[in-house]
């Protein structure tokens, strides 16, 4: 148990920066600051936990540890809110969330620990309600919700342990707490690796969940036919800079209308739809033009870079473009 806790502490500290870089791609504004605060707080807690478990350091009982402990929940909330609701917390109200961290330094340790987890439980309740509200979008990104649900489950277990164990079995609790934070880092890293643009996808699904319909007086079937003609006939997906606004203007729709049309009728977000169109074209090119370099295939299909091409192709087909070409190579004509 002790060795595993030390391993996860090191893993968390050294993966905090790359994990943060991946998270920040799908956030902006105050969410950037909240995400930075969240990862800094978790990595800081892991450093203090490591020093306590490995060297019995008294820094665990310092005011700095209590401030970090109380900062995790509000930072997570302020990072998640724009993703799950599509809007940020107003500035003055956002500051109220940092009242507990501000007074944490003055609380005795034996009270601060269970109180921080009790406050965390309240934030977890909010997160549970918002994740439940996304249940209708589950068929479109089941894997993503499972990973997020796993992180939520770890946080719930830690919260329960934090309100029961510390006073009775302190070393055991901090070993388990360190492992749990490490597991959350591992799951998050896995989610970001398997699902590029995870933050953007969750935000897109949330906006669709809470939005009112914009398609009441729209002939959806006719528009879907026009959309298919633009993609199959004119191959608009080959434009690397094609965006939602430009495609919507081609269909005489607003951005919100086209987004809702693709979400509700095709079961995916715009970015996923565009990636699927480009990957479909790339699959054709890989087999029809066997001498064309893989990078050229991606650029011709509409991808702006090799990394974007490889990420999308692997996400949709489960293999690299080179492996796909190798497995589906046409036999030479005799």
What does this structure look like?
With 334 residues, this protein is mainly alpha-helical. It is built from 16 helices and no strands. It starts with a helix and ends in a 7-residue tail after the last helix. The mean pLDDT is 81. Residues 221-327 form the HTH araC/xylS-type domain. InterPro entries: Homeodomain-like_sf, HTH_AraC, HTH_AraC-typ_CS, Tscrpt_reg_AraC-type_HTH.
- Give me the Rg, rounded: 24 Å
Please, how many domains? 2
Order of helices and strands: HHHHHHHHHHHHHHHH
* Backbone shape: elongated
* Number of H/I helices: 16
Keywords: DNA-binding, Membrane, Transcription, Transcription regulation, Transmembrane, Transmembrane helix
Domain HTH araC/xylS-type: 221-327
InterPro entries: Homeodomain-like_sf, HTH_AraC, HTH_AraC-typ_CS, Tscrpt_reg_AraC-type_HTH
Protein name: AraC family transcriptional regulator
Features:
elongated, DNA-binding transcription factor activity, membrane, 0% strand, mainly alpha, Arc Repressor Mutant, subunit A, sequence-specific DNA binding, single chain, 334 residues, DNA-binding, Rhopdopsin 7-helix transmembrane proteins, AraC family transcriptional regulator
């Amino acid at each position: 148990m002790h060795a595993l806790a030390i391993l996860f502490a090191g893993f968390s500290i050294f993966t905090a920066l790359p994990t943060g870089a991946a998270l920040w791609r799908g956030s902006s504004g105050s969410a950037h600051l909240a995400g930075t605060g969240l990862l800094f707080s978790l990595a800081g807690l892991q450093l203090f936990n490591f020093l306590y478990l490995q060297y019995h350091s008294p820094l665990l009982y310092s005011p700095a540890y209590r401030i970090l402990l109380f900062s995790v929940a509000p930072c997570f909330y302020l990072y998640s809110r724009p993703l799950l609701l599509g809007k940020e917390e107003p500035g003055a109200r956002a500051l109220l969330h940092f009242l507990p961290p501000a007074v944490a330094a003055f609380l005795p340790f034996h009270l601060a620990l269970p109180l921080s987890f009790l406050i965390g439980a309240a934030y977890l309740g909010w997160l549970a309600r918002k994740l439940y509200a996304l249940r209708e979008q589950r068929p479109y990104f089941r894997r993503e919700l499972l990973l997020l649900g796993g992180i939520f489950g770890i946080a719930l277990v830690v919260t329960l342990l934090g309100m029961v164990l510390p006073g009775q079995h302190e070393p055991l609790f901090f070993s388990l707490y360190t492992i749990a934070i490490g597991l959350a880092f591992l799951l998050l890293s896995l989610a970001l690796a398997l699902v590029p643009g995870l933050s953007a996808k969750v935000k897109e699904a949330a906006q669709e969940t809470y939005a009112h319909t914009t398609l009441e007086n729209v002939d959806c079937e006719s528009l879907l036919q026009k959309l298919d003609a633009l993609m199959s006939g004119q191959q608009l997906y080959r434009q690397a800079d094609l965006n939602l606004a430009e495609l919507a203007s081609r269909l005489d729709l607003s951005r919100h209308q086209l987004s809702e049309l693709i979400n509700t009728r095709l079961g995916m977000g715009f970015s996923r739809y565009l990636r699927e169109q480009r990957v479909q074209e790339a699959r054709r090119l890989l087999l029809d033009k066997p001498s064309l370099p893989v990078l050229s295939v991606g650029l011709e299909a509409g991808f702006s870079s090799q990394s974007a091409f490889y990420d999308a192709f692997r996400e949709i087909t489960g293999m690299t473009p080179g492996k796909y070409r190798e497995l589906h190579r046409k036999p030479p004509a005799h």
